[in-house]
Amino acid sequence: MFADIFIENNFQKIDKLYTYIVKDDVKPGMRVLVNFGNSYRVGIVLSLHANYSEKYLDKLKEIHSVLDDEPIISRDLIELGLWMKDRYLIGYSKAFSPILPPGNLQKIKKKIIVEKYPHGKDLEKLNSIDINKYFEDLSETEKKFIKKLRAKGFIKYIYDSLVMVKPKLVNYLKVSENFAPKNLEGISEKQAQVFNFVKEKKDISRVDVMASLGISYSPIKTLIKKDLICEYKKEIKREPVEKNFATQKISLNEEQQKAIKSIIETDKVVSLLHGLTGSGKTEVYLNLASKVIEKGGEVIVLVPEIGLTPQMIDRFKGRFGDKVAVIHSKLSQGERYDEYRKVLNGEVNIVVGVRSAVFVPFKNLKMIIIDESHDSSYEFHDNLKYDTIEVAINRMKHRGKVVLGSATPSIETYFYAKKNFYNLCELKNRAKKGAYLPETKVVDMRDELIMGNISIFSRELKKAMEEKLKKKEQIILFLNRRGFSNFISCRSCGEVIKCDDCDISMTYHKTKNRLICHYCGSTKPLPKVCPSCGSKFIKQFGVGTQKVEEEVKKLFPEARVLRMDRDTTTKKDSFDKFYEIVKNRKADVIIGTQMVSKGFDFENVTLVGIVAADMSLYVSDYKAKERTFQLITQVSGRAGRASKKGEVIIQTYSPDSEIIKYSATGDYVDFYDYEIEERKLFLYPPYTKLIEIEFSSYDEKLTQIWAERFLHQMSTDIKNVELMVTKFIKMPKIKNINRTKFSIKVKPKNLVLLIDGLKRVINNSKIEEDNKIFLNIDFR
Ligand code: ADP
Ligand code: ZN
Ligand code: ZN
């Protein structure tokens, strides 16, 4: 037999499968040790076959040893990896890296534990084996014997890692074992208080004692010296979330019940759960999950990075307790491995996590739920060479179901639902009694300019803030993450310079002092006055969170201001900390980016100010309008979560824009009907698939040569497929790297043909053999 083996590496050139001869019992998904070059490496068997070309047979080596006796990645995950490699034109390493266990493959160890003891001879034999040994260290006869016991259910395997993770040690206090009442004589009142406290609590951390009593370390030190109490170190289990979950049983309303029934009964793989914020989608997820696990199935619940709030985790842990593993990007390597191991060892049947959790190695996975399915963090981009929804659908095809939940589904998702490719379920009302949708006002910032108000806040917003502060209610001021956009707009009339052919705003390139369309590549000089109204107030648009913070502090010196953005929330627990601050009403004005748009559910927030609604409207991307609608609707949903009436103020330079209008009313279907027509007209997805091909190099000439050569090769290698190809677009240099790209649009049904064609182009052009050029293909 021959095995094709994948060996992790970072070089494109050697990123292929290697064939070895196998004699032992081995299955795809097992780790093997092989002689590779001059050293030994751990690889994973991806497939087995009986035939190999005679010609090269004598060059083949034998596998050194098999490290597992059952696969560590399942067949369906291997298939998924191979599919990703094909679909996204990436190498084996890129395709398999999200699928492999976190950390170092070489360091995963399999241990044996005894479930119940056998009788007779078997017991004797078992006792003579050191079962604490790692599986790899056993002899062949020992391994065979262990397998036999396992088949009979006497022992089981667990996975362990040799990643050295230091246990977290905390100082604890307790009454000393040598405690003598006479030592209590003559201690101060404060010391007595500390002693009694520790005695009462029996076992409490030093920090908790100090915090509870509001004391310094000194009285504790004295008590220790007198041998009344003693201090010791206690290991705290790394638990990514705190354990205090409120479980509340809710009886589902009619809409929710109908949705659940329809998702369970549909024969379609994908269901879209379209329900406005607060309509009870999460309750539906919880219910679906419990139905699946009742039948012995497993569930993955994906949430966007910033959607994985303590609230969300609490709700799942509250309902399902220890059966839930949580995976988010701020986990340390050790924590991440701990969570992964719980899945591998069958200790949990639900995973709540960010996008990479779509690959967790459940064996009986029946459902993948994707919350806020429109979120851009799920989409294919530079650092994520796969589309999470697409991967989920592929993983569940023939095996289970995918549920996409959103208040503002992506145009593409809704399109498929309307075309009946997906099962559509709707929740049209807020679930909680007495919770109203907020009242929304649009403020025309051009009028403010005319009235001489050049502040970032309109008079309306300023007044509303004043009122809320007086009533001790909380305010969220929202700004787009893409703080300093490069589009050019007119502050007098709101006009934004767009490309004549693509209807997409052009980007200003400082070095060339020209506007460039990132889709088709056409350029224009920077106008001196607004082409629409002649005003001189035409300039680059942009306000940052810091500027907003300064302004608020100037206007309302008494207000407690909290700024939440990428800069202030990089540390591991800071999001949770912010969350607590807002919840406990220790901040009056919360200024934030995308982070405040999701999962924030506070009843005391009654005003949301969208400082510059236009910002994302003009990002040069065909999805800009849909993102703006999603953002505004989402942020607006933060106001008036409970009985207090909420208010939303949207500041804009283009109040007549359809998107701003639809965002203000929050009517998704109206917005969809409008936007889908635009997509059809300008041939954007879902009517086409859009692919960007980018060449980058330190050498400017080489970039251009390769771009042209590639395009030429395309005309030879891709025939019979109708392609819409744009001009070359030269991107601004970043860190001295030259970049040139072009995009291709193709009818969706021809995507497969195009991908196959591109494979031939890459092969025949031999671009991957040129170390000086880097090729990047983006699926948009
Ligand atoms: P979504 O996920 O759609 O934003 P949630 O599931 O978070 O909605 O529900 C919003 C609020 O309504 C939560 O506080 C939740 O506890 C409550 N809720 C959900 N379903 C019901 C129901 N059937 N009856 C009463 N309250 C509900
Ligand atoms: Zn103008
Ligand atoms: Zn254009």
TrEMBL record:
One of its GO terms (biological process) is double-strand break repair. It catalyses: Couples ATP hydrolysis with the unwinding of duplex DNA by translocating in the 3'-5' direction; ATP + H2O = ADP + phosphate + H(+). Residues 525-682 form the Helicase C-terminal domain. Zn(2+) 2 binds at residues 499, 502, 517, 520. The keyword Metal-binding applies. Binds 2 zinc ions per subunit. Transmembrane segments: none annotated. Keywords: ATP-binding, DNA replication, DNA-binding, Helicase, Hydrolase, Isomerase, Metal-binding, Nucleotide-binding, Primosome, Zinc. One of its GO terms (molecular function) is ATP binding. Its EC number is 5.6.2.4. Its cofactor is Zn(2+). GO terms for cellular component: primosome complex. Residues 262-427 form the Helicase ATP-binding domain. Zn(2+) 1 binds at residues 490, 493, 530, 533. InterPro entries: DEAD/DEAH_box_helicase_dom, Helicase_ATP-bd, Helicase_C-like, P-loop_NTPase, PriA, PriA_3primeBD, PriA_3primeBD_sf, PriA_CRR. Gene3D superfamilies: P-loop containing nucleotide triphosphate hydrolases, PriA, 3(prime) DNA-binding domain. Belongs to the helicase family. PriA subfamily. Initiates the restart of stalled replication forks, which reloads the replicative helicase on sites other than the origin of replication. Recognizes and binds to abandoned replication forks and remodels them to uncover a helicase loading site. Promotes assembly of the primosome at these replication forks. Component of the replication restart primosome. This is Replication restart protein PriA. It comes from Peptoniphilus porci. The lineage of its organism: Bacteria, Bacillati, Bacillota, Tissierellia, Tissierellales.
